[in-house]
Each structure stands twice: as structure tokens, then as C-alpha cells.
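Hello again, I could really use a second opinion on something today. Take your time with it, there's no hurry, and the full record follows here:

___
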Amino acid sequence: MVKRLASGDWFTSRTSACGLFGCCYPRVSTPVKAELRSHFRTLCQDDTPMVRRAAASKLGEFAKVVEAEYLKSDLVPMFVSLAQDEQDSVRLLAIEACVSFAILLPTEDTEQLVMPTIRACVEDKSWRVRYMVADKFIEIQNAIGPELSKQDLVTAFQSLLKDGEAEVRAAAAGKVKEFCQNLEPSVQETVIMNQILPCIKELVSDANQHVKSALASVIMGLSPILGKNNTIEHLLPMFLTQLKDECPEVRLNIISNLDCVNEVIGIQQLSQSLLPAIVELAEDSKWRVRLAIIEYMPLLAGQLGVEIFNEKLNAICMSWLIDHVYAIREAATVNLKRLVEKFGPEWAQNTVIPRVLAMSRDPNYLHRLTCLFCISTLSEACGQEINGKILLPAVLAMANDNVPNVRFNVAKTLQKMAGYLEATAQPQLRPILDKLNSDADIDVKYFASEALAALSA
């Protein structure tokens, strides 16, 4: 069947044959193996680009099952031929085979037979080929080993970071952290400082937002590699530049990775340099940016300590509760719970709860709803005493609210709180829920009956 497909008149059958060589080859006799290698060579030289593409995409798979002595004599020439194909769609698929060959061949053969192709692909006239090299760069680096990486790949990586095409720069920028981590420890710092960092400095202010965004998602990871002094002197100015970038994606990616920098330079330095930028982003006009800051806030709070947090960031956390975007208000309630878990119920009683309870009397019903959401979420973290003496009375008072949405959320909140109250407080719930169960609004009645059923259970 494989022979029939490989010599079929229609290119579709020849294309299909390429995928079957890898599974047939190990299971046949030596003469048939030679025949299969010959057929595969013919497919690699096929007149139809679609067939050559299929052969290029399966060459690495085929190389894994071919004996070592035929790898150099038969398959490497096929690989070199495909890597120099006139069609860029064939050349870019040959790059995947580079990884397989580099793993299978000894180092000296890799240097002589595979490296020239990698160098040529890095400088290929087609941006799609260069993009594929950038995309597969870490796999290539792992396959060829640290010695060849040091000799050849550093220069190649610099070239990709400076590429004229934004897609190539973005793909390479996203690999910066892994590439630097994989460098040999003896040359790691020197190579990064002298050869990689100058390229990164240019990319921080790149004209293309995808390039800056890709870099922002990994640049923080260089801190543990470079250490405290280099981070403060060289990386921190770049972080601050990216935190002020007009593209929200760039700012988000920097914020999401702040923790690995904190481990290296300490919170004092971090708070002095980054807190002003974080405060600015917490009030950003783009709600997704505010959302990212909220998600990072408990971690930042734990690093700053309660005093600095109360002074610099507490007011912002409370202001999110009345944000005009629902997703922010919802995330802000979860954020408060995580902060209470970090700082304790006493901190909550003095700092958070008074502000939350004040919202129960707000003229805007959305703020009153947020108050209920907060109480519902905080009840898990505050303990029975605070729940029974401080939070429960506020919820019960809101059962008479003139907005049905608020009343049915009272029922939902009481159902949630029931499990976190002392037994002595439980009897206060039923009369209110009975009253809500006979409410004129159908939704209020429904949620009150649900709460009563849960209470009985």
C-alpha cells in the first residue's frame, strides 16, 4: 500500500504515503528498508510542492526509526535538499527536522551537517522561515547542546531579536527567558549582559505592541539569573518603562510576573520603584488592567506587610468595590476575602468591614448589592463572632429594601452565611426568610424558599 501510494499519479496519494513510512520502516526486512528509503528520497524531490511539504513534515519522524549508518548517508542529504527548497513553505517545515537530526546525530556531525542549515534559515529571505526558527528556537537549543549554543546560537538569537519583521521579533522575544536559562552557567551572565541585554533594551521601546507584549511576559524571569545588582541597575528601568507603556497587554504582562523580581531585589526596592506605577495602573481606564492589578494585590500585600499596605493600597482596594464595571466589583470582593485571610479577622474588623457596611445604606442599589456580595464572601474568612455580631445584623436590615434584587440577594447571602454562624444566631434567620418567602416578587420568593430548604437540611 505504501509503495502504491508513494508512486500514485495523484499528488494526494503521494502526500498520504509520507505519514506511513515512520510506522512501516522498523517492521520490515533490510531489502525492503532500502526500498522505502529510496521511495522517501523520491518524495522529497517530487515536482509538487504539497508532496515535498508532506515529506519535510514527516522527515524528523522517519529519521527517528532509520539506523544510524543510513541517517548520514541517506537522510541528511534529503534534509539539506528540503531546507534549500525554492518554496518557503517547504523550507520552514524542514526546521522541525533540524531538532530530530540534532538529537540523533553526534555533536561533531550536528556541527557539520545541521548547523549550516540553521544558520541559513536564520538569514532566510522569507520571514516565515525565520519565524519558524524563532518559534522552535528553544527546541533547537536543547537539541544541539550547550557547547554549540554558545558558539552559534547566541549570534543567531541576536539576529532574530533584531529582525526586520515584527512577527519574528515577537516570537524571539517570547523565548528570551528560556534561552538565557538554558545557557551554560559559566558564560550565562556574560552572554546576557553583553549580547542579549542590548537587544532587549531596543525591544522595550519597539514600535510593534506584540513584540513589547511578548517581551513583557518573560523579561521578569531574567531577574533570578542576573541577580540583585544587575536587576536594579539594568532591568528595573526597563520594567518601569513597560509599566508605563500605552498598550494594556504590556502592562498586564509585567504586573503578572512581579513576584519573581521581588524574590531577587526585596520589597523595599520594589515598593520604592514600582508602587507609584502600580497605584497608577490600579486606576487605569482599561478595566482589564485594573482586574490584573486586583488579582496581584493579595500577593503584593503579603510582600509589603500590613502597614505599607494600609497606607498605600487599602484605599484603592475599597474604591474597586464601587467600580462601574461588574467584573471589577466581583473581583474586588474576592480580593478582600484573600486579604482578610492574609491579615486576619481583627484587621478586617478595623479596616474593611466598616467601609463595607457603610455601602448597605448607599442610595445606589448596585452598591448595596456589592455590600451583600462582600458579606457573603467575607463570612468564610471572618469567623463566627464577627459574622453573628457585625455582619448578620446588616444583612437582616437589608431584607426590607425596596429593590427586589437586593431582597433576593439577602436570601442568598443568609443561605451562604448559615454555615458560618454560631448556633445561637441561627434562629434569627428563619423569621426573615419566612417573610421573604411571602414576598410579592417571584424571584425573592424562589431564593427565600431555596434558603429555607437549605436551612432545614
Summary: The first helix runs from residue 2 to 6. The CA atoms of residues 21 and 62 lie 6 Å apart. DSSP finds 29 helices and no strands in the chain.
